[in-house]
Specification:
Length: 316
């Protein structure tokens, strides 16, 4: 093969590592394929001093990359699926979803303590309302501090800003080879993951059939089905970064199991549920679970959140 492929990605160490994983996978399949990684600075990278919920949500991490795709400046974008809005930009499509790395959140603490062992009132840094809400639901005594930045930046802030611990996605820690810093993998009963967490999405121009054929072998169907259910759940609830919504799906004995929840930002109210069904009905299962939670009272949480300005706890 004598083909050139341009991969668009954010410039963080994790984003570049993830793009290199995809590049290596493609080169292993196609001898002679030439790949260039193009670094693109996104709006989410430029504004690091405000919570995502305040500046427009996770779509800010892919907007400029999608614009480069549409303009023909790159051929393929590598995204963390948790950053991809449920409605993909017109003219683009997710051509493949890679096999999931660990979907769970992890706790990294200054002294290696687990969540239960942290002292009363401990300061825990996190970047998301979803994590904040679930942490406070489990331990209302904690002081949750908004924490933005790349993984390496957050690890530095753990020390430099006097935090007791931080909570981040385990997938990023694993891909960067930093597993030895994990004090605890948080089970879904404590911190249910973000929609799509741990999976990578390969986005292309919808009509670019050549690139589609190149990346399609990297698609991992079990992960794709699980993420499809999670994204259908999120879409029905109409949520995003501004609303603490979580879901995690996985295949077990040939069937798809999906857990989901909606929680008030301060952790005082939570609605959760589970559903299991045929893998072919992934999208239907996600929508059905959302309907179940709405009937349990999630609709009231979502409606109230529309009426208030979300204010994550300020750093002391």
């Amino acid at each position: 093969m004598n083909r050139k492929l341009r991969i668009g990605t954010r410039g963080s160490l994790l984003a570049l590592t993830q793009s290199e994983l995809i590049s290596a996978g493609l080169k292993a399949r196609y001898a002679g394929l030439s790949i260039t990684v193009v670094k693109i600075t996104t709006s989410g990278d430029k504004v690091t001093n405000a919570p995502l919920a305040k500046i427009g949500g996770k779509g800010l991490f892919i907007k400029e990359i999608e614009e480069a795709l549409l303009a023909g400046q790159v051929d393929l974008a590598v995204h963390s699926m948790k950053d991809v809005p449920t409605d993909v930009a017109p003219g683009l499509t997710i051509a493949a979803v890679t096999e999931r790395e660990t979907p769970y959140d992890v706790l990294i603490s200054r002294q290696g303590e687990t969540l239960d062992a942290l002292p009363k009132g401990a300061q825990v840094g996190t970047s998301s309302l979803r994590r904040q809400a679930q942490l406070l639901h489990y331990r209302p005594d904690l002081t949750v501090v908004p924490l933005r930045g790349n993984v390496d930046t957050r690890l530095r802030k753990l020390i430099n800003e006097g935090l007791d611990a931080i909570v981040v996605a385990g997938a990023g820690i694993s891909r960067l080879g930093l597993q030895d810093q994990i004090a605890q993998v948080l089970p879904p009963e404590i911190s249910l993951p973000a929609i799509g967490q741990g999976a990578l999405g390969l986005e292309i121009r919808r009509e670019d059939h050549t690139t589609h054929a190149l990346v399609e072998p990297l698609n991992h169907r079990p992960t794709q089905l699980a993420v499809t259910a999670e994204r259908a759940f999120l879409k029905r609830l109409g949520g995003g970064c501004q609303v603490p919504i979580a879901a995690y799906g996985h295949l077990h004995n040939g069937r798809l199991h999906l857990m989901g929840l909606v929680v008030w930002p301060d952790g005082t109210g939570v609605v959760r549920g589970e559903i299991t069904g045929r893998v072919e009905e992934a999208e239907t299962l996600g929508t059905a679970l959302a309907e179940d939670l709405l009937s349990q009272g999630a609709d009231r949480i979502l409606e109230e959140l529309k009426q208030v300005v979300l204010r994550p706890p300020a750093a002391p």
